[in-house]
Design brief:
Elements (H helix, E strand, L loop, with lengths): L1 H20 L7 E5 L2 E8 L6 E5 L11 H9 L3 E5 L18 H9 L10 H14 L5 E6 L1 H12 L4 E7 L13 H8 L6 H15 L8 H14 L3 H12 L5 H6 L4 E6 L8 H8 L5 E5 L11 H15 L4 H4 L1
Parallel strand pairs: 3-4, 3-5, 5-6, 6-7, 7-8
Antiparallel strand pairs: 1-2, 2-4
Helix pairs in contact: 3-9, 4-5, 7-8
C-alpha cells in the first residue's frame, strides 16, 4: 500500500513539479572562456542528463521557443541554451576586426578560400568550454542551422562525451548542394540599418522569407519577434563575422564520415535556405543516422510545425537518455 501511495503521489505531482523545474524564466548567467564570454541559461535539475541547444546564425538563446524548451526539460533533461559568441549577450574580444562580407561572399561564389576572424570549430570549442565550466562531462546536443554545423564539430571534437546528436535544418557544407535564391541571400546579408525601425522591418522581411509557404505569417507578430530580439541585443557586425565563418568552412563530409554518435537528422521539405537535399546529404554521411523529413517545414521554428518537430525529436532523445524514473514513466 505504501508503494502504491508513493506512486500515486509521484504521478499526480509530476505535472506541477515539472512546471516548476522547467521554468524558462531562470536568470541568464555568464561564463568567461578566455577571449569569449558566453551568456547562458540552465533549465532543469543539475542531476538530469544535459541537453545542449546550439542556435543558428545570429540567433539568440531566446529563439529557442520557451514551450519547446519546457517540453524537452519535461522529458527529464537539463536543458542548456546559450548565445553564441558575437551575438545576444555573449561577447567576443572587443578589438574584433571589421568583416568584409561582400568580399568574402564573392570569393566563396568563385570557389576561392575565404578568411574569417574565427571558425565554426572555434565556436564548437566555446560550447565545449561552457559544458566544462558547468562541470558536465557527458551531454546530448541539438543544433539548428549553423548550430547544427557547430554541433557536428562538437561531436567530432569529443565523441566520447556526446551521447546523442540531433541536427535540424543544417548542412554538410559540401559543394554542389542546392543554393538559396539570390533574393534570400540578399536579405540574409542585409545588416546595415539607419534606425531601429528599419532594422525591425528588415528582420521581419527575413523571417517571412525563411518561413513556410504553407503558413500565413502575421506581419505584426514578426515585427514583435524582431523587436524582442533587437531590444535584448543588436550586433550586426557579429552576425557578419559568423556568416564569414560559415563561408570559410570547407566541406565537412570527411568529418561526418568518421562520426559514430547516435544521430537524428531532421529537415523540412520547404526549406528555402538549405533545401532538403542538404539534410539528406548529412544523413547519408553519418553512419547509422536516422533521417526524418517534415513536409512543409521551412527554415524557422513556426508554431504550425512545433508538434511535428517534437514528434520527430523526442523519441530519439528518449532512446539515448539515461534510464531512470522519467524514462520508465
Amino acid at each position: 500500500m505504501r508503494v502504491f501511495l508513493l506512486l500515486v503521489a509521484l504521478l499526480w505531482g509530476l505535472p506541477s513539479a515539472a512546471v516548476e523545474r522547467c521554468d524558462t524564466r531562470v536568470a541568464t548567467a555568464k561564463v568567461a572562456l578566455g577571449e569569449v564570454q558566453l551568456a547562458y541559461q540552465s533549465i532543469g535539475r543539475a542531476s538530469d542528463p544535459a541537453l545542449l541547444l546550439v542556435m543558428g546564425l545570429g540567433g539568440q538563446l531566446i529563439h529557442w521557443p520557451d514551450e519547446v524548451v519546457r517540453r524537452l526539460c519535461g522529458q527529464g533533461f537539463r536543458v542548456i541554451r546559450f548565445d553564441n559568441r558575437d551575438v545576444g549577450l555573449s561577447r567576443w574580444r572587443q578589438d574584433a576586426p571589421a568583416a568584409d562580407l561582400a568580399y568574402g561572399a564573392l570569393r566563396h561564389r568563385l570557389g576561392l578560400s575565404v578568411s574569417a576572424p574565427y571558425s565554426l570549430r572555434d565556436m564548437a570549442g566555446d560550447a565545449l568550454g561552457l559544458m566544462d565550466a558547468l562541470g558536465v562531462r557527458q551531454f546530448h546536443v541539438l543544433g539548428a542551422s549553423m548550430g547544427g554545423m557547430i554541433a557536428q564539430h562538437l561531436a567530432d571534437l569529443v565523441p566520447a562525451r556526446v551521447q546523442s546528436l540531433t541536427l535540424i535544418m543544417t548542412s554538410s557544407g559540401a559543394r554542389g548542394l542546392p543554393s538559396p535564391s539570390p533574393e534570400l541571400l540578399a536579405l540574409l546579408a542585409r545588416r546595415e540599418a539607419p534606425s531601429r525601425e528599419v532594422a525591425l522591418e528588415q528582420q521581419a522581411d527575413l523571417l517571412a522569407a525563411l518561413g513556410s509557404p504553407a503558413v500565413s505569417d502575421d506581419r505584426e507578430r514578426l515585427l514583435q519577434q524582431a523587436e524582442t530580439a533587437y531590444d535584448r541585443a543588436f550586433n550586426p557586425e557579429g552576425v557578419e563575422r559568423q556568416l564569414l565563418a560559415i563561408l570559410a568552412e570547407p566541406s565537412r563530409v570527411e568529418l561526418l564520415n568518421r562520426l559514430r554518435v547516435p544521430t537524428l537528422v531532421v529537415h523540412g521539405t520547404a526549406d528555402p535556405l538549405l533545401p532538403a537535399m542538404h539534410g539528406v546529404h548529412v544523413a547519408a554521411h553519418i553512419q547509422g543516422s536516422e533521417l526524418k523529413l517534415i513536409p512543409g517545414l521551412a527554415h524557422r521554428f513556426q508554431d504550425a510545425f512545433k508538434e511535428p518537430l517534437l514528434a520527430a525529436v523526442l523519441p530519439h532523445l528518449r532512446a539515448y537518455r539515461q534510464h531512470g524514473l522519467w524514462a520508465r514513466l
